[in-house]
Amino acid sequence: MVAWRAAAYFRDHDGHVREVIAFAKTKSAAEHRLLTKLRDRATITPAGELSPTDKINDLIDLWIEKFEERVADGRRSPTSLTTYRTAIKNHVRPALGELRIGEATTPRIDRVIGTIKRNAGRSTAKTCRAVVSGMILSVLRPAVWMVAGAMVGPLVSRARSSRIASAPRITGEV
């Protein structure tokens, strides 16, 4: 039996170039299988969770889940979670939820935030901007090559003791 072999080199998300091979009984079937393998390989994100063709609603759900984990770990405030959920429910999800992640361009998001500012006020727009930025960064962060620590995570610092001025400094005495 004669089988056709179709092959191509593909640069994976980790930067390594690998050969992708597909076999079939006919030349066109082998090419079709190869194209299917390449398409499937290209849609897998480094984090393995979302792709540019997924909807922002999926991103919102994933981000809330991760934020809830941070609240449970004590790294984020439960009040922040409540505030962000309200902003998502009332503004972000209705405005952006049905868009695909790949369609969430900076001008489009700026327009949405501007509309929220006009309709709901500056503080609500700032909260929505923080939510959208956090969601986008949570998706992009695994996929972006981090140059010189430009997108490193937040640093957890130890609490500092407060520095209180002594009485002579306050009164001006020596």
Which descriptors would you attach to this protein?
DNA polymerase, domain 1; 2 strands; Integrase-like protein; mainly alpha; 174 residues
Give an account of the 3D structure.
- Keywords: DNA-binding.
- By secondary structure, the protein is mainly alpha-helical.
- It folds into 2 domains: 4-43, no CATH class; 56-143, Tyrosine recombinase, N-terminal domain (DNA polymerase, domain 1, Orthogonal Bundle).
- 55% of the residues lie in helices and 9% in strands.
- It is built from 6 helices and 2 strands.
- The protein has helices at 27-43, 56-72, 78-96, 106-120, 122-143, 167-171; strands at residues 4-11, 17-24.
- Helix 2 (56-72) packs antiparallel against helix 3, helix 3 crosses helix 5 and helix 4 (106-120) packs antiparallel against helix 5 (122-143).
- It is elongated, with a radius of gyration of 24 Å.
- It starts with a strand and ends with a helix.
- Residues 144-157 have low confidence and may be disordered.
